[in-house]
Structures are given as structure tokens and as C-alpha cells.
Amino acid sequence: LIASHPETDPDTGVSEEARRVLGVLTAELPPSQAAKLAAAITGAKRKQLYELIAEPVEKFDKNQ
Question: What three-state secondary structure class fits 15?
């Protein structure tokens, strides 16, 4: 069994999977709640996820 780690964005330190989960949750929940749940699901840091939500739209693609 070979385990692979999700690709992590070198600029944000957040994995692609965490960004995808955050995008789904952000579409339905307030930013703070979306960041909290995405952190619980993916193990990413809540603060980093919340900062992604606050970034300009062109930097955060919800369709990833």
C-alpha cells in the first residue's frame, strides 16, 4: 500500500483537498463556520483556511 499526501500549495500551505472542501462548505455556510469544519475534516489549520476565504476571488477558485 502506497500512501500519497495531497499536493500542498507552497504559498498558502493548504492542500488541494482542503481547498476543495472549503469551497464546498463556503458555498453553504458563513466563512468562520466553513473554515472551522474544513479544518476538522482535513486537518488543515483553521486560520489558514479562513484567510483563503478572505483572499480576492481570483486567488480562491471554489471549483477546485
Answer: strand
Write down the pTM of the prediction.
Answer: 0.72
C-alpha cell at 48: 489558514
Positive or negative, the CA dihedral 12, 18, 22, 24 is positive
- State the Cα–Cα distance between residues 50 and 40, nearest whole angstrom: 13
pLDDT by residue for the chain (64 residues), tens digit each? 555 555 777 777 789 999 999 999 999 999 999 999 999 999 999 999 999 998 765 555 555 5
| Angstrom distance (rounded) from CA 42 to CA 1 | 21
The cell numbers describing 9, all together, are 500549495
Could you tell me the three cell numbers for 33? 463556520
Q: How many CB atoms lie within 10 A of CB 22?
A: 28
